[in-house]
Amino acid sequence: MIDLMSKRKFFFIFSAVLILIGLAFFLINGGFNWDIQFEGGTIIKIEMKDDNYDAAAAEAAIENLLGKGVTVQKETTFNPDDQDNKLALMSIKVSKENTLDNDEINQVIDYLETSPDFFVNTETQPQIQSVAPFIGVELRNKALMAAGWAMLLIVIYVGIRFRVMSGISAALFGIVALIHDALIMLSVYTVFNIPVNEVFVAAILTIIGYSMNDTIVIYDRIRENSSVMSKSDIEKMVNTSTWQSLPRTINTLLTTLLTIVTLYIFASIYNVDSIKQFAFPLIIGLTSGSYSSIFIATPLWMMWRKYSIKKKLLEAKS
Amino acid sequence: MAKPRRIDYSSVQKKEPKLKPGAKLWIKFTIAVILVAFFSVMILVGSPGLGVSKVSDIKTGIDIRGGVSATLYPDVDDVDSVTDEQLQTIQEILENRIEAKGTFDYNMSPDYENKRLLLEIPYASGDDTNPQKVIDDLGEMALLTFQRWDEEKYAFDSSGRIVFLVEEADLKDDNIVLDGTDVADSVAMLNKQDNSYMVALTLTETGAEKFAKATAELVRKPIAIYLDDELKSYPVVSSVISGGEASITGNFTIEEAVELANYIKYGALPFAMTAQEINSITPILGESALNVTLRAALVAFILVVLFMIIRYRLPGLIASIALVGLVASEIFWISAFNASITLPGIAGIILTIGMGVDANVIIYERIKEELGRGIELGEAIDIGFKRAFSAIFDANVTTLISGGALYIVGSGPIKGFALTLIIGVIMSFFTAIIVVKYLLKAIASIKIFGKTWLYGTKGVAR
Question: Residue B462 above 80 pLDDT?
């Protein structure tokens, strides 16, 4: 049985390096890449008959129509009816300062549909996402609040249920692991410059539940073993408990990853962006969640426990 | 240590008509089988009595069907001053307006916490109405006012037509003689004189009185009709109108006249509502995403079943049967709660396929451990379930807490995800401690299924 606890420094450094890389990219990029859902702005995607259209001309025409700056790009997407032919889309993006209202959105669509220069496929509905900037900020704050509340409630619950392990401290180190997972996920998002949106928050909240779940199973083993094993060698007890929980941690991680990776692969093959956006952060978070339970929360709790026992002994002596 | 207690227990039980412990096992086994079968059959055939529709009939969210969702916010400076009653009234008025536009398949729900209305209009195939256009002008106040102008601001030209002496916007000085609440009914009509359309108004009793008084003062003068700040028409009063009938003329097309009549009829909003968040999803993309996600779900399910059987053998097979029940019960509850299936919702189901076997993994690892210590199978199963209980329970509560937080703050599709996650956690808990336990204990009691290799261990004490 390898003594995982004695190698803890290596794991702490490994996580710290990952998070530091994320921080470096955060500083280079000048913050997170917020999705328009969390920042405001408008995206309109219109299906075109083919991709032989002049994006620059469309951009100029729409700017002229609205008196607002827009960006027009060509895009393609998976065609469910004909797998060999992709659908051509015109993507019109408007920054948060110029967020379009419903009237303006309709103006753009009406213009493109009637213009002789652009051939819009009028049989389908355009895809539109438009969020006023103040709403975006509100959504973002609410999402962060939700994550905060969830963590607080979990601390209270774990604190009550794990009194034997001096609950609150156990819960707090569990939360350290959660914050670690959230930071790892944010780092990956910053490094790859993926927009942060509601789906990402949903993924973070899922991971908060999952990671704590993982930590609790190990804690549960420590709770059980602390009544049967000698308390003198706490490091050995924690190490044994971790090893006893390891098959479960790995197997559950594997079954969960099996499902989410399958989803991700399918979404990648068929280019379903919304699902890819959902599966990717979950894959990162699940892995990080299992890792942090074993290599962050448990050793941290053990260090704290050793320290407090030592302190008590010193106090008793003097 | 658990054994003596069990003997005590059964000795108490023996006063009752005798049931062999074996028979009890099989009764429980049957209950477990019925539970799995019930949920599976339910989602395959549906039951109108229970308010559950079969899986193919469950309504899908607009992220799959396609459509428009918009969040309407009150257009006021102090959002906190908006009351729940106001929001309710506005919702009723807006629903009337939507239906007046010929759209009946929509969903509007108030969010009292955040003082806003959420509107979803699915795209209907073969229907020409563009949901996007339904949102247009939907939240306008539609405050109808009849106003008089300052006589120094206009004059009549030689042919008797009115000419403005100031800018049109400066004409209005909110000298209101009548407003929308004085109107009992409004309808679009053909004006036979010039073949244009007009809106005919029937006034209430007090409205008729006010109007008679106002027209008496305004004979041969214009009366201006405003909808919000927009000047709709300014007919010249020819004589006192006392019958409570009035009309708005202004060379309207039939569509314009119908729309104006509807706005007046269905009331004015206390303040305007504006769509600050608009999402429109094309049905074609949603449909293909659904197919891809369902295929992924099937493959994921098969992979997890294979993993469980290879890793845990006989108990793995039992967990897989329970997993069928878990997925079926999840779809059952979504349907029973009348929730829509959304793409994140299906992702949530896929996630619970993976996470749902966790309780089994915890229990089975425990059973293997006990078997490894040389403990007899039946007892190892008992200990496994007992020892694993606290871990499973505590772990599920934390997932519920984060799922609950997500449900409260999430918007439409994300709420769907949170809901499936919550249902999945609760149901996986019950399938593990009821279905799996009863099935496993009964089957393990059969001699040929009692071999320890079927449980993935050699049964040798370490």
Answer: no
Q: What's the number of domains chain B is made of? A: 3
Residue B461 lies in a domain: no
Which ranges of B117-250 would DSSP assign to H, the alpha helix? 131-135, 168-171, 205-217
- Whether residue A20 is predicted with pLDDT greater than 90 in this model: the reply is yes
Q: Does residue B156 sit in the same domain as residue B178?
A: yes
- In 3D space, the residue among B424, B436, B422 whose CA is nearest the CA of residue B385 turns out to be B436
CB atoms A135 and B276 under 8 Å? yes
Cβ within 8 Å, pair A278-B132: no
Range of the structural domain that residue B384 is part of: 7-61+282-455
B293 contacts: CB under 8 Å, gap ≥ 6: A263, A266, A267, A272, A275, B343, B346, B347, B350
Q: Note the pLDDT of residue B326.
A: 93
| Domain closes at, from B242, B268, B294 | B268
The pLDDT assigned to B5 comes to 41
Whether A68 has a pLDDT exceeding 60, the answer reads: yes
Question: Which amino acid would we find at residue A271?
Answer: N
A106 plus A160 within the same structural domain: no
Judged by CB atoms within 8 Å, which residues 222-281 of A form the interface with B?
223-224, 244, 247-248, 251-252, 254-260, 262-263, 265-267, 269-270, 272, 274-275, 278-279
Q: What is the ipTM of this complex?
A: 0.85
B460 located within any domain: no
Residue type, A225: N
The whole-angstrom separation of Cα A119 and Cα A114 is: 9
Residue B27 covered by a domain: yes
A114 and A204 inside one domain: no
Range of the domain at A119: 41-131
Question: Is the CB of residue B132 less than 8 Å away from at least one CB of chain A?
Answer: yes
User: ∠ CA(B345), CA(B350), CA(B356), 5° rounding?
Assistant: 115
Residue A310 pLDDT: 86
Torsional sign, CA B283, B284, B290, B291:
positive
> pLDDT tens-digit profile of A194-209?
888 888 888 888 888 8
Supply φ then ψ for residue B334, to 5 degrees.
Answer: -55, -45
Query: What average pLDDT does this structure show over A152-169?
Result: 81
